[in-house]
C-alpha cells in the first residue's frame, strides 16, 4: 500500500485532478515504494511517466520519478492529504522500455527501485533544490500589527528581506551567520507567517553543444564473407526479418570474423529503420569499434557512450540517442541503458567477460539487461565469444539460445601453436628471470624478422610487495588490509584499492632494520628488464597507470603504426585488439589467476589465456604462443594449449556438478561493510541466523557458510564480512530470491537504532 502523506493543500489545486505515483530518490530501503502526489494544473499537459520531478518529502525537496499517472486514488487515500509536485525536469524522459526495467531489475537484484532509476537517468541533469525565505505577497491586518510590534532582530531581518532582489534570501545564507538572534528571529517570523519558506530548483547552467571537427568519410564496403560467416548470417537475418525475439550464441574461434557478422547483421537492421546497440566489455575497445562501424555506416550515425566521457558530452549523446538521431550506440556496460527507440539488434561482444557485471549496487549484468531490453522490443540478440561463459553455452545446449559456431579463422590461418614452459624446470637449472629461455629466444627471433611481440602480465607496478628480511614486516595500506605495490614511476608505494600513496620506507617501521627489499614482479619491472636486455629496442607498456597518464588509445596507435616491436600489458590488451604484425604472444604467469578464492577461477583463466593467445597470427603471418607456468599439467592450461573449448567445458562442468556450483545451483554472496569490525560481524551473524531460521520455516533447502572475513577484510577504512548461501535449484534463482526478500524485510523491521552496516547482495546463478 502506498504511504499516505498527512499534509493539507489548498482547494484551488484540485482543478483538473491527476495523481502521480512517484519513486523518491532515497537510499532508505523502507522508502522503496510509490508515493502519491497531486499533479498541479499547470503541469497536467506536460507531465508523463518517466519524467523526473521534485517533490516535498519530510520537509525537504527530493528528486523522484513518475512511474504512473492515475485519474483516481486508492480507496485508503484522500485527496486533501496529498502534497503536490513542486517542479518538473523537462530535459529528459525515460520511455516505457526503460521504465519496464525498474520493477524487473529491482526484483531480480534485490535492490531498491531508486537504485535502478539512478542508473537509467542521464548524467548532469539533476537540479539542486534550494530553500528561500520570501516575503508574502499580501499581509492580513493582524500580520501588519504583528510587524509593527517586532523585536529588533526580527525587524532587521524583515528590512533586509525587503531590500533583497526579488525580496528573497537563501535560507542557508541566513543560517550561516550562526548568531542566535537572527536564527531565533527567523523561527519566530516563520511561525507568525510574516515570512515564508519556498522550495525552488537552482538553475543549471546549460553547456554549449560540443561541436567536434567533422570527420565524416565515405562509407566503406564490407569484406567478402566466408562460407561459415554467410551461413551464420542467414540464420540471424531470418530472425531479424521475422521480428521475433531470439538470442544467438555466436561461438567463434579468435580471428574467425565475428565482428564482420555483427556488422552485416547491423546493416540489415538499419535497412529496416531500426536501431542497434553494440556492447563491448571495456571502454578501451570503444574507439576501435567506433571507427570500424563509422567507416561502414557513416560516423554521424554512430555514437560512443561510456562513463569515462565528460559529463556534458554524455548528456548530449543521451539526448541525441533519445531523439532518434543516432542509429548505432557503442559502449561498455553502462551503455546498455542508452535510450534507443525501436531497437532491432543487440550485440554483446565477448559476452563471457566479468566486466559486464557491475561490482557496486545495483549489481546488474550488462548481458542480462541487454537481453531483457531485446525482449521488450522483440529484437535479435547476438552474444559473441571465442570462450562462452559456461552458463551461456549450457543455455545454448538446452535450446534456450541458438548456437552458431565459427570453427575456422576468417583468412584460413591455422590457430597458433601454444607451448607451455615449465618454470620449475627453469628454476632448477638456475634461470631465475621472469623471461624463460625459450621466450627470450622467441622474442629475439621476432626482433630479427621485424615482427611484433605482446607480453602479458596481469600485475601493474614494479614490485608487488615490500618486505623487511629481518622481521618479516610487509608494508600494508593504512586504510586497507592489502600490501602496497611499489611503482618505480614516482618512487612511491601505491594501494590499488583506495589509491593511497606513500613514500618508500628506508628502514623497517617495526624493527628499524634497513633490510627493506622489493619482491614480486609487475609490468614496470618487465619493462625495465626488457630495456636492459635490448637497450636499442623501443618498448611500450599498457596498464591502468599508463592509460591514466598517456591514454591507452595513443599507446595502441603507436604499436599499430609499428613504432615499437614489443608491447607489455595487463588484461587491457587481452581482448578485441587486432595487430597484423603480432606473431608472438608471451604469458609470463599463466597460472597466477588459477588459485584465487572464486569458483570460476579456472573458467576465467581459460577465457583470459585463450583471448590473449588469440592476438597472435591474426593476418597472413603464422603466430606462436608461449605460456610460462609452475603448473603446466593443469587441465585449464592443457585446454588452452589444444584450443579445445569443449574439453574444458565438459571437464569444468563435471567438477561444478560434484561441488554443486552454478550452473547446478544458485549462489548468493552477501557482503556486509561498516566502520566497526565487531558491529559488521554482529549484523553478518544476525543474517546467518535469519537465513537458517527462515529457510527451515519455508522448507527451502539451503546451505549457509559464514560469516567469514572478506578476502580483503578492510577497504577504504571499512571492514567487510561475507555470508554465502547456496540453494540446489538448477534453472531458477527465484526460490533463493524469495528467501532473501523475507530476510531483508525481517532485518529492516528490526534495524531501527542499530549500527549503520551496509548490506549488499549478489545472486550468481543461471536464470
Main sheet: strand order: 11-12-10-13-14-9-15
Tell me the total number of β-strands: 30
Category by helix and strand content: alpha/beta
Distance between the termini: 29 Å
Can you tell me the CATH topology of the largest domain?
Rossmann fold
Share of helix, binned: 25-40%
Radius of gyration: 30 Å
| Major sheet attributes | 7 strands, parallel
- The DSSP helix count reads 23
Strand content: 15-25%
Account of the protein in words:
The chain has 767 residues and is an alpha/beta fold. The chain folds into five domains: 118 residues, 3-Layer(aba) Sandwich (GIY-YIG endonuclease), CATH 3.40.1440; 71 residues; 180 residues, P-loop containing nucleotide triphosphate hydrolases (Rossmann fold); 179 residues, 3-Layer(aba) Sandwich (Rossmann fold), CATH 3.40.50.300; 99 residues, Ribosomal protein S10 (Alpha-Beta Plaits). Helix content is 33%, strand content 23%. The protein has 23 helices and 30 strands. A seven-stranded parallel β-sheet has the order 11-12-10-13-14-9-15, sandwiched between helices. Strand 3 and strand 4 form a beta hairpin. Helix 2 packs across helix 3. The longest helix is centred in the last third of the chain and has 21 residues. 39% of the residues are buried. The N terminus is likely disordered. Its EC number is 5.6.2.4. It is an enzyme of class 5 (isomerase). Keywords: ATP-binding, DNA replication, DNA-binding, Helicase, Hydrolase, Isomerase, Metal-binding, Nucleotide-binding, Primosome, Zinc. Pfam families: DEAD, Helicase_C, PriA_3primeBD, PriA_C, Zn_ribbon_PriA. One of its GO terms (cellular component) is primosome complex.
Amino acid at each position: 500500500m502506498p504511504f499516505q502523506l498527512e499534509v493539507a493543500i489548498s482547494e484551488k489545486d484540485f482543478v483538473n485532478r491527476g495523481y502521480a505515483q512517484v519513486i523518491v530518490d532515497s537510499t532508505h530501503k523502507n522508502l522503496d515504494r510509490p508515493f502519491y502526489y497531486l499533479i498541479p494544473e499547470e503541469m497536467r499537459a506536460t507531465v508523463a511517466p518517466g519524467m523526473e520531478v521534485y517533490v516535498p518529502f519530510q520537509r525537504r525537496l527530493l528528486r523522484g520519478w513518475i512511474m504512473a499517472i492515475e485519474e483516481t486514488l486508492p480507496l485508503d487515500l484522500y485527496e486533501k492529504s496529498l502534497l503536490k509536485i513542486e517542479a518538473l525536469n523537462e530535459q529528459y524522459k525515460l520511455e516505457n522500455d526503460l521504465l519496464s526495467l525498474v520493477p524487473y531489475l529491482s526484483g531480480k537484484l534485490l535492490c531498491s527501485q531508486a537504485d535502478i532509476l539512478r542508473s537509467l537517468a542521464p548524467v548532469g541533469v539533476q537540479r539542486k533544490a534550494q530553500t528561500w525565505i520570501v516575503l508574502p505577497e499580501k499581509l492580513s491586518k493582524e500580520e501588519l500589527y504583528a510587524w509593527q510590534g517586532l523585536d529588533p532582530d526580527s525587524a532587521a531581518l524583515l528590512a533586509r528581506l525587503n531590500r533583497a532582489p526579488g525580496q528573497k534570501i537563501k535560507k542557508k545564507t541566513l543560517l550561516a551567520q550562526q548568531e542566535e538572534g537572527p536564527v531565533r528571529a527567523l523561527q519566530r517570523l516563520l511561525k507568525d507567517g510574516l515570512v515564508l519558506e519556498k522550495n525552488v530548483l537552482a538553475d543549471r547552467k546549460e553547456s554549449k553543444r560540443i561541436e567536434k571537427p567533422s570527420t565524416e568519410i565515405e562509407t566503406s564496403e564490407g569484406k567478402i564473407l566466408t562460407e561459415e560467416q554467410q551461413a551464420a548470417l542467414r540464420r540471424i537475418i531470418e530472425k531479424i526479418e521475422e521480428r521475433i525475439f531470439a538470442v544467438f550464441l555466436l561461438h567463434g574461434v579468435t580471428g574467425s570474423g565475428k565482428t564482420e557478422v555483427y556488422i552485416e547483421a547491423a546493416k540489415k537492421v538499419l535497412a529496416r529503420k531500426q536501431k542497434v546497440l553494440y556492447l563491448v566489455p571495456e571502454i578501451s575497445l570503444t574507439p576501435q569499434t567506433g571507427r570500424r562501424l563509422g567507416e561502414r555506416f557513416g560516423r554521424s550515425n554512430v555514437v560512443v557512450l561510456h562513463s569515462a566521457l565528460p559529463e556534458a558530452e554524455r548528456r548530449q549523446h543521451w539526448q541525441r540517442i533519445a531523439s532518434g538521431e543516432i542509429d548505432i550506440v557503442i559502449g561498455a556496460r553502462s551503455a546498455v541503458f542508452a535510450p534507443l527507440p525501436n531497437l532491432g539488434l543487440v550485440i554483446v561482444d565477448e559476452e563471457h567477460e566479468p566486466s559486464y557485471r557491475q561490482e557496486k549496487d545495483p549489481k546488474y549484468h550488462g548481458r542480462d539487461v541487454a537481453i531483457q531490453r531485446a525482449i521488450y522490443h522483440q529484437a535479435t540478440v547476438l552474444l559473441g565469444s571465442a570462450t562462452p561463459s559456461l552458463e551461456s553455452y549450457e543455455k545454448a545446449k538446452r535450446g534456450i539460445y541458438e548456437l552458431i559456431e565459427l570453427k575456422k579463422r576468417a583468412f584460413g590461418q591455422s590457430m597458433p601453436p601454444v607451448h607451455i614452459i615449465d618454470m620449475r624446470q627453469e628454476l632448477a637449472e638456475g634461470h631465475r628471470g621472469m623471461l624463460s629461455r625459450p621466450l627470450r629466444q622467441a622474442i629475439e627471433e621476432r626482433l630479427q624478422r621485424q615482427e611484433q611481440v605482446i607480453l602479458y602480465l596481469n600485475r601493474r607496478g614494479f614490485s608487488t610487495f615490500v618486505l623487511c628480511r629481518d622481521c618479516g614486516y610487509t608494508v600494508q595500506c593504512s586504510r586497507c588490509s592489502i600490501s602496497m605495490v611499489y611503482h618505480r614511476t614516482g618512487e612511491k608505494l601505491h594501494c590499488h584499492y583506495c589509491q593511497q600513496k606513500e613514500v618508500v620506507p628506508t628502514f623497517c617501521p617495526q624493527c628499524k632494520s634497513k633490510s627493506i627489499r622489493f619482491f614480486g614482479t609487475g609490468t614496470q619491472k618487465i619493462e625495465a628488464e626488457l630495456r636492459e636486455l635490448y637497450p636499442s629496442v623501443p618498448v611500450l607498456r599498457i596498464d591502468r597507470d599508463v592509460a591514466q597518464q598517456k591514454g591507452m588509445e595513443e599507446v595502441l596507435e603507436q604499436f599499430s603504426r609499428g613504432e615499437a616491436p614489443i608491447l607489455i600489458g595487463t588484461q587491457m590488451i587481452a581482448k578485441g585488439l587486432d595487430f597484423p604484425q603480432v606473431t608472438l604472444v608471451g604469458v609470463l604467469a599463466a597460472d597466477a589467476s588459477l588459485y584465487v578464492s572464486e569458483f570460476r577461477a579456472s573458467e576465467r583463466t581459460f577465457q583470459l589465456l585463450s583471448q590473449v593467445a588469440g592476438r597472435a597470427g591474426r593476418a597472413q603471418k603464422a603466430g606462436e604462443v608461449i605460456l610460462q607456468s609452475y603448473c603446466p599439467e593443469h587441465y585449464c592450461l592443457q585446454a588452452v594449449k589444444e584450443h579445445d573449448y569443449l574439453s574444458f567445458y565438459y571437464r569444468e562442468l563435471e567438477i561444478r556438478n560434484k561441488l554443486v556450483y552454478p550452473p547446478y545451483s544458485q549462489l548468493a554472496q552477501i557482503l556486509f561493510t561498516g566502520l566497526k569490525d565487531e558491529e559488521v560481524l554482529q549484523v553478518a551473524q544476525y543474517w546467518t541466523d535469519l537465513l537458517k531460521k527462515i529457510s527451515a520455516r519455508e522448507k527451502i533447502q539451503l546451505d549457509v557458510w559464514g560469516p567469514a572475513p572478506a578476502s580483503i577484510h578492510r577497504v577504504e577504512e571499512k571492514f567487510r564480512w561475507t555470508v554465502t548461501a547456496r540453494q540446489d535449484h538448477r534453472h531458477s534463482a527465484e526460490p533463493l530470491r524469495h528467501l532473501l526478500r523475507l530476510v531483508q524485510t525481517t532485518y529492516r523491521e528490526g534495524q531501527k537504532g542499530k549500527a549503520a552496516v551496509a548490506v549488499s547482495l549478489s545472486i550468481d546463478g543461471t536464470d
